[in-house]
Amino acid sequence: MGMKERGGRIVTQVIPDVRKPTLRDVVLENVETGAVVSTDELMSYGLLTGDGFVHGAVKHGQKEWSYYDYRTGETHSTNNIDSFWKLFKYSVRSTHIHLSREKLSLYLAEFCYRSNHREIGNLMFDACWRGFNASTYNAIKAVSRSSFIIMRLGLGYEFL
């Protein structure tokens, strides 16, 4: 399940099912009561109005992608979170090929991190560079005349 704050960050959580009690717990944990919430037409989201949220459902089945609610003055759309899921699926197909159910939350956490920090140009490189600590090296050894370098980290891993 994914949630995106307008102009803010994305939060995802792996959930066992899409039943009302499951969705209700996740929404109450992550969204302030009284907030405007836009969803698709899944019936389980009907709980939101009763829990104090201003809820609008976009009807994807009728080719509706956003709409203006004259009663509340809010425009409801799920385009941001739909775009996140589309990019996540493309990333899986092109990078990981297969995801294990056990590690799905880790893949989602990484992708959320990237999405929430996308304004940083070289995000992963810069984060790795900041985390780099030269004192963790035990030895650096060049292998004969090739360009390979074996690095033995203090953690016991070897990279070729």
How would you portray this structure in words?
By secondary structure, the chain is an alpha+beta fold. The protein has one domain (2-116). 34% of the residues lie in helices and 22% in strands. It has five helices and nine strands; from the N terminus they run E-E-H-E-H-E-E-E-H-H-H-E-E-E. It has a three-stranded antiparallel β-sheet with strand order 7-8-9, with no helix packed on it. The protein is globular.
Give me some keywords for this one:
160 residues; single chain; 34% helix; 5 helices; alpha+beta; two-stranded antiparallel ribbon
Low-pLDDT windows of residues = 134-160
Helical stretch count? 5
Structural class: alpha+beta
Overall pLDDT metric: 76
Report the count of strand segments: 9
- Report strand order across the widest sheet: 7-8-9
The geometry reads as globular
The radius of gyration computed from the alpha-carbon positions, rounded to a whole number of angstroms, is 22 Å
Please tell me the total number of domains: 1
Q: Whole-Å distance between the termini?
A: 38 Å
Bin the strand percentage.
15-25%
Element string (H = helix, E = strand) = EEHEHEEEHHHEEE
Helix content: 25-40%
Largest sheet entry: 3 strands, antiparallel
Summarize the structure.
The chain has 160 residues and is an alpha+beta fold. The protein is built from 5 helices and 9 strands. The strands form 4 sheets. The chain has a 3-stranded antiparallel β-sheet with strand order 7-8-9, with no helix packed on it. A two-stranded antiparallel ribbon has the order 1-2.
